[in-house]
Write a structure and sequence with these properties.
homodimer; mainly alpha; Arc Repressor Mutant, subunit A; Tetracycline Repressor, domain 2; 11 helices; DNA-binding
Chain lengths: 234, 234
DNA sequence: TTAATTCTTGACCATGTGGTCAGTTTTCGC
DNA sequence: GCGAAAACTGACCACATGGTCAAGAATTAA
């Protein structure tokens, strides 16, 4: 079972022999590695900004510093390039989907959850925007992923939250809405960056800003659903 | 000062005589009204789904049930159509930007704010997604609006929140982050509808779901920032 | 050095793009 | 009914699109 299927990305079946496209740690020569890195970086930026349809290979090729035909030599087609980027994003996301159990401390788990979400939004804003663009367009490539892998993840976390509520460690809020609240409020700072910067009249958010926001969100969530906060070295 | 400027949408100067495009309550004959309504509805859907670049006039024309040349007869150009949609959205948004004062009750104001935001997300999901798509792409047309009108609105609300905090009616949280929290968590249900539906395994969110979510978000926000909730007929 | 493999590229193609325009049809005030 | 204004439309244009291909250049393995 290859990664495309594991991640539920609706890839067209490509019966070609594996040319290294579906492996994360890239194989192939040093030239290929360098060029593919440049391509993926450029493509992610532009797909995130203009969506799948609104992106042209010509533009990606320019930003990657090579003629369009060379781009196509590496990526095969626009579709394959896009799917590959989605897969890479889902892989990154999965790093965060670590296991928790009902025995863990709610405050610690929720804090860590919010913090890591904020960090991902900061470290990979283009990935975040690419994902947002895909969902905004109705998730044509990610239906399977959403209804499968991601749904399972949410359900299992929900069970843990429920257990915490039953044991009186937090209020009996709907776990799914809670997860959505955390997702939306954290991703906002990547996806709506233009709005955030415009309103706060900044060129960029500093590390201090991010820390500030993270603390704010953590406090709102913990207090909001009745979890006693762990004291952090404030 | 026409509406385009009032709303800060970066329209190209169109020195043509007013043909009714920049007036909300449409003038012109009944045929024009009917056709423009169809066009705007179709265009909003498709722009929201595929972004500005990813949308073709051909597709809009089909959905609006007329040939492309007829479409262009009404809207002038793709740009003008897009700008017009943004203006309409900003106008709708403004309905919500009603005045509040430091003398109002925090719980009531915040509750009403969240509720109206959720209702707009429900009544005009395409508008919400259009706006999201524009921001995601770096807000090329809305820079002025964000840094002007909307920023002013946020700053004035912030002052009120600050006053409430000073009077001990709520915790001294950063008002701007609080506004972003409310915006993001409510708009999520329009913009990320595909994700919400996929994960909750539904075809659509019911009115009861929406009421449920609204209550959840209200409770989280009020409790989270230490506002005593008004009792609602639960 | 040689031979195979990988890489690079411009020319090219069918199709789609936003937009124009001339000419026709329909609607509407009188 | 008549004339003007509004509405409609197919043909057309220059250009961009995703993608192919053949042929050459660079790299690597023997």
């Amino acid at each position: 079972m290859d990664k495309a299927r594991r991640h539920g990305v609706q890839n067209e079946q490509q019966s070609e022999p594996d040319n290294g496209h579906s492996v994360e740690q890239e194989s192939g020569g040093v030239i290929r590695q360098r060029n593919e890195r440049a391509i993926l970086a450029a493509a992610e930026r532009i797909f995130a900004q203009h969506g799948y349809r609104g992106t042209s290979l010509q533009q990606i090729a320019e930003q990657a510093g090579m003629p369009k035909s060379n781009l196509l030599y590496y990526v095969g087609s626009k579709r394959k390039l896009y799917v590959r980027l989605l897969e890479r994003t889902m892989t990154r996301w999965n790093v965060m989907l670590d296991n928790i159990s009902a025995d863990d401390d709610p405050a610690e788990v929720l804090s860590a959850f919010i913090r890591s979400k904020m960090q991902i939004s900061r470290q990979h804003p283009e990935s975040s925007r690419l994902f947002a663009s895909e969902i905004l367009g109705g998730a044509p490539f990610l239906q399977e992923y959403l209804r499968g892998e991601l749904r399972d993840w949410v359900l299992s976390r929900s069970a843990v939250f429920k257990a915490w509520a039953d044991r009186g460690l937090m209020d009996p809020v709907d776990p799914v809405w809670l997860i959505f609240l955390i997702w939306s409020s954290t991703q906002h700072y990547a996806d709506f960056e233009a709005q955030v910067l415009g309103i706060t009249d900044r060129d960029a958010l500093s590390d201090d800003d991010l820390e500030d926001i993270t603390r704010f969100l953590t406090r709102m969530v913990l207090k909001g659903c009745g979890v006693k906060a762990v004291e952090l070295s404030q």
